[in-house]
Amino acid sequence: MRYIRLVLLLALSAAFTTASAGVLGGSLPSAQAAVAQLPVITTFSPGDFPESLAVDGQGNLYASLGFIGEVVKVTPGGQQHPLAHLDVGGAGGLITGLAFNAAGTLYVADATFQASPPPGVFRIGADGTVSRVATLPADSFPNGLAFRDGDLYVSDSSLGAIWRLSPAGKLTSWLASPLLAPKTSIGANGLAFWHGSLYVSVADSGTIVRVPLGAGGQPGTPVVIAQSSLLRTADGIAFDVHGNLYIAVNDNRLVQLAPSGALTQLAAKNNGLAYPTMPAFGTTPATRTTLYVTNGALSNGTPDIVALDAGVSGQPLP
Q1: How far apart are CA 136 and CA 149, in angstroms?
Q2: Strand partners, 113
Q3: Contact 293, 276 (CB under 8 A)
Q4: Which of 86, 210, 290, 291 is the most buried (most CB within 10 A)?
Q5: Are 275 and 298 in contact (CB under 8 A)?
Q6: DSSP class of residue 72?
Q7: Exposure of 195 by Cβ count < 10 A (0-12 exposed, 13-18 middle, 19+ buried)?
Q8: How far apart are CA 132 and CA 115, in angstroms?
């Protein structure tokens, strides 16, 4: 696992260009670019690799700069302010998912791929103070984060699992499934909740998996609700208020999955995508229909944050 960065560079930067596979539960329209060039909100330095994105209640954006271990606050006007630094454990490690809890506290995942410092999840105070709240096995790959009812859910891209962290700090292995397991490098990735179910993007298999929540928040049987070559290298995900799921696909795609199961490609490389990693909706009255997307630019292009008017408000913060 210490060679995971090489795996990322070689496996995830490969082009998955076909778009012929069907979608479970719906037809697949022809891929289309529904927008022109996406406006750039802010630009990062080459090699920073913005991996994830979260938005606070005041409309500020927060990006995790994966390989350098920095969390940066970006104002609505695009000004950058470094917030916190984490130890990624040397070559190969990176910080990944970001998420706010209901109290407005920011959390970040750190994938070190080693025993010291071990992978985990950290809380970031408003003043940038970093506190470890969970420690994961050395061979885990904590990636996507999502909150529900105070519990934090963490995808594990190498173990094909979902961890759950309670408000009291108890970490449990919530779910492990072959549907979440990696085939070559990256399994369970982005996380988002919608109407009592957890939705998971699985990068290698190009699938979206729905996990219903039962009594006490226990997981039900995972089900694949969409599978397509359009979704190969699927990364971060976000819902709008109508249940449309927006999926950042590293292979230069922004894809929408409708509740009917239909997939539509909303933007591509020619619109300004460069290894997109995470979509997140704005939170203020002026930006609720704005979908922000981080461009990791892992193999080429410019690392930045771009914006798209989705025409519908995003699902509110937890």
Answers
A1: 22
A2: none
A3: yes
A4: 291
A5: yes
A6: E
A7: exposed
A8: 15
Give pLDDT tens digits for 212-227: 999 989 999 999 999 9
Dihedral sign (CA 205, 70, 99, 238): negative
Q: Is there a contact between 209 and 225 (Cβ–Cβ < 8 Å)?
A: yes
**Distance (Å, whole) CA 237 – CA 193:** 10
pLDDT in tens, 60-104: 999 999 999 999 999 999 999 999 999 999 878 999 999 999 999
Whole-angstrom Cα distance, residue 203 to residue 180? 9
Give the CATH architecture of domain 4-309: 6 Propeller (2.120)
Question: What does the block give as tokens for 4?
Answer: 């995971």
β-partners of residue 142 are 156
Q: Residue 103 carries which side chain, given as an amino acid letter? A: A
Domain assignments of the chain as residue spans, ordered by start: 4-309
Predicted model pTM: 0.91
The model's pLDDT over 122-165, given as tens digits with 9 standing for 90+, comes to: 999 999 999 999 999 999 999 999 999 999 999 999 999 999 99
Q: Which residues of 9-45 are buried (b: 16+ CB within 10 A; e: fewer)?
A: eebbeeebeebeeebeebebeeeeeebeebeebbbbe
DSSP line for 258-313: -TTS-EEEEEEGGGT-SSEEEEEE--STTTTTEEEEEE--SSSS--EEEEEE-SSP
Residue 78, Ramachandran bin (φ over 0: left; ψ between -120 and 50: alpha; else beta): left
Q: What distance in Å separates the CA atoms of residue 256 and residue 266, rounded to the nearest whole number?
A: 7
The SS3 assignment for 130 reads strand
The span from the CA of 13 to the CA of 235, in Å, is 13
Phi, psi for residue 25 in degrees, rounded to 5: 90, 5
